[in-house]
Amino acid sequence: MIPRLAHVIWVGGAPMPEKEAACLERNRQVLSGYDFFLWGDDDVEQLSAGLPQVQAFIEFARAGEITPQMRRVAERENLTPETVRAEVARGRMVIPANINHTSLDPMGIGLACTVKINANIGTSPTSSGLDEEVGKLKSAMKYGADTVMDLSTGKDTDATRVAIIGASSVPIGTVPIYQAIEEVSKPTEITADGFLRIIERQARQGVDYMTLHAGILLRHMPHIAKRKMGIVSRGGALTAEWMLAHHKENPLYERWDDVCDILRAYDVTASLGDSLRPGCLHDASDAAQFAELDTLGELTRRCRERGVQVMVEGPGHVPLDQIEMNVRRQREVCDEAPFYVLGPLVVDVAPGYDHIGSAIGAAVAGWHGAAMLCYVTPAEHLGLPDAEDVRQGVIAYKIAAHAADIARHRPGARDWDDRMSDARWNFDWKKQFELAMDPDRAREKHDATLPAEAFKSAEFCSMCGPKFCAYKNSQDVTKAWNEWVAQGGPQAVTT
Predict the structure, then answer these.
(1) Which is more confident, 458 or 383?
(2) Cα 31 to Cα 279: distance, rounded to the nearest angstrom
(3) 410-425 pLDDT, tens per residue?
(4) What is the mean pLDDT of residues 431-435?
(5) Main-chain phi, psi angles of 10, to 5 degrees
């Protein structure tokens, strides 16, 4: 007997042509055991190669099984494998790891893990290309990005994405609506089936997590009119445009079960996009933002029910005093799904320096429970970031994430800082460079004024010189005190 195929999503138009129906029927044996198959005109080649047989990480975890990926995360996070398994099963941790991303070194995102950072790269319709974006990827990984999102909107996005995935050992995320829009003449022409086809194509290519703007609904539209800056999410604005043009509900929300079936087949993590995130301080924590958050809570539960790992994206511009409340509210509404925040920026008046203004907010968000921080670069609000912008954004956010780990009293988080303090006190310049988040920049700043090799062992820097160095003078004070104590001199001094 030929096993039954549980669920077929036909995306090549209705009704299914006889040729395609016959091919599907001939290959039902190949398809047996899969929860779904997205079947269209260009899928014959994939079918002949066979579909991935997947049991998702969250399903393994719920069954009490520890996978090699969970063990690797435990090793990297200094956790027990059982802790990782339990957190994945609970939904408080995700391991974005597409079955087709073969160069990936698995990592975890969640409350039990160190705070992670993401770097955004990608082409635009007006600049950059494949080589430049692969270069940005390598720069982001060099300086410590834990994940990278390819936000390409220019030409040849498939080729760019495949090249980035192939060159990356960290999880790669995407925003599928960008490619869906590129393949039609105008945003309102996209169809739900066309959108599903793009999601499946990117999943097949090896994308580890996808930002999906499924939470913005027609009933949220009245709230937007009250804002100073409306919708600042590109995906959110495009989705709203489609809904109002057709007077229909968000197609991703309507077809969410089908979306989940695709994600589960490749073990892609859903990253629920915050279409209505505030784009300025004025709009922070408003009715629009929190109405969408309630929908994201619903979608979180639906993901988990269908065996899909899920994290939730958060606001972009939030006053410093509102950040803790925003994190706490997300955790309550979304049942502690990992919170992935953009920034947030805590001021709106620092173009060119938004990586600094947002890193302040990111550190506070991480302290209070955000699991991953999406970096902001000096080019934010101004243009497409280049490789140097990527470097500065990554380092700013590594600082924020590390500060959050220390504030959360994560065991061992401060050991790195203590080693740096020892190196500074001992004038071990080479060790200081080695321990720096950006060793090249630290060495460059030191050598700008004292380049000779002899100064790598000097007991001063160019700021103070040998006479005014507090470290050296303090060491001399400590030495003199110890000698005095040894001689029995300080009898009248109490400690």
Answers:
(1) 383
(2) 45
(3) 999 999 999 999 999 9
(4) 95
(5) -90, 120
3-state secondary structure of 39: strand
Q: What is the model's pLDDT at position 458?
A: 80
Alpha carbon distances (Å) from 321 to 126, 201, 225, 276, 396: 38, 42, 25, 20, 21
Say if strands 37-39 and 8-10 run parallel, antiparallel, or are unpaired.
Answer: parallel
Select from 45, 47, 49, 71 the least CA-distant residue to 60: 71
CA distance 133 to 209: 18
Residue 442 vs residues 217, 258, 267, 313, 439: alpha-carbon distances, Å: 48, 50, 40, 33, 5
List beta partners, residue 372: 116, 340
Whether 364 and 370 have beta carbons less than 8 Å apart is answered as: no
List CB contacts of 214: < 8 A, sequence separation 6 or more.
250, 252, 253, 256, 259, 272, 273, 295, 299
Q: What token pair was written down for 193?
A: 């089936």
Q: How far is 39 from 47, CA to CA, in rounded Å?
A: 9
The single-letter DSSP state of residue 268 is P
Q: What are phi and psi of 64, to 5 degrees?
A: 85, 10
Beta strands 109-110; 93-94: pairing state: antiparallel
> In 3D, which of 52, 49, 26, 22 has the Cα closest to residue 37?
52
Determine phi and psi for 238, rounding to 5 degrees.
-65, -40
Cα distance between residue 287 and residue 291, in whole Å = 6
Asked whether 376 and 345 are in contact (CB, 8 A), the reply is yes
How does pLDDT run across 98-116, given as a tens digit for each residue?
999 999 999 999 999 999 9
Which segments of 213-318 are extended strands (E)?
269-272, 310-314
CB neighbour burial string for 138-157, b if at least 16 within 10 angstroms, e if fewer: bbbbebbbbbbbbbbbbeeb
Amino acid in position 190: I
Instruction: At 63, list the tokens.
Output: 């069954």
Listed in sequence order, the residues at least 6 apart from 259 whose beta carbon sits closer than 8 Å to its beta carbon are: 196, 199, 212, 214, 252, 270
- How many other CB atoms sit within 10 Å of the CB of residue 231? 23
Tell me, rounded to whole angstroms, the distance of Cα 353 from its chain centroid.
21
Residue 99 to residue 50: CA distance in whole angstroms: 14
Report how far residue 398's alpha carbon sits from residue 128's, in angstroms, rounded to the nearest whole number: 25
* Residue 109 and residue 338 in contact, taking contact as beta carbons nearer than 8 Å: yes
- The whole-model pTM stands at 0.86
Tokens of 266: 């490749």
Residue with tokens 């700043």: 445
The residue-averaged pLDDT of 210-221 equals 97
| Residue in the structure block whose two tokens are 């997590």 | 209
> How distant, in Å, are the alpha carbons of 12, 27, 57, 261 from that of 39?
7, 12, 25, 13
Strand 147-150 relative to strand 116-121: parallel, antiparallel, unpaired? Answer: parallel
